[in-house]
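Human: Note token order:
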Amino acid sequence: MQTVLYPLKFKPIFKDKIWGGRKIKEQLGLDYGPLPNCGEVWLLSGLWDEQSEIANGDFEGDEINDLVETFMGDLVGESVFDKYGEQFPLLLKIIDANDWLSVQVHPDDELAEKRGLGNGKTEMWYVMQADKDAELVMGFNREMTQMDYANILKDNGLQGVLNHEQVKKDDVFFIPAGRVHALGPGIMVAEIQQTSDTTYRIYDWDRIDVAGMRRELHVAQSVEAIDGRLPEQYKTEVANVMNRTVPVVDCQYFVTNLLQLQGEMEKDYANLDSFVILMPLEGFFTLNWENGAIFVTAGECVLIPNLIKKVVIRAEKYCKMLEVYCQLEENEY
């Protein structure tokens, strides 16, 4: 008898980082074992060499891309499968910065393809927690051409043209490919991004690792990747509304909405040709569908297959979550 698709949870993938802290364990309760500095937990990854494994039900232990290959549009959506094939198109993670991350930039799809790197990397951050006076780097403080940028690098003037932003809980930053950025100490974020692990590290604060070495920089590779346009503001404004679906980011690679819920919410995805991911940031909820129910808490996510169109999200206490899916031109949700 063929197994019916159901909402999927995943085994976490923990990442030791020189700049990582302890909030993933202390605030989210996730046990990352002997790692000295857990900087990231990947909640859902389709990267070929670091795929997420299913953590629940009949498919427990299977890798996500195997399920995409088997169920195709029933899992991810017909238009999504047509565009992305057998690789799951998004990577969801939580980042805990106890020190500055490197100042970095990611290539767009065109440059990544030109360099044989697969996808580009557009992403977003939702700030889950921020210490007092925490800040990050987001873009430049003035318009910047690639030639300007190359000259500034030669003159060691990068730090003088970086834009610093004060950060508080619930801030949102959209980071299109080409925008320089760096997460600062005392910040924990949820990150939604294209499936890519390509990062051009521009500056690493003259940091030395435990082996007495500096991390590799990718200054030359970064020049062609830079998009130095100056937006009106770098921070994304998000409405603070209970028990409604609030738009956060809508781009060609993913849509992210915010749900702040206490009680019950019915969702009907009949006009959406995509999977849907629910990622709690605070609290927990129960996801109910026709054939069952599943409990999901902060530090996890759940993938609702495209085949399942009607669900009920029930939060007995306050729960804040992100709703993520692909909105291609064919979709009408």
Q: What stands out?
A: The two ends are 33 Å apart (CA to CA).
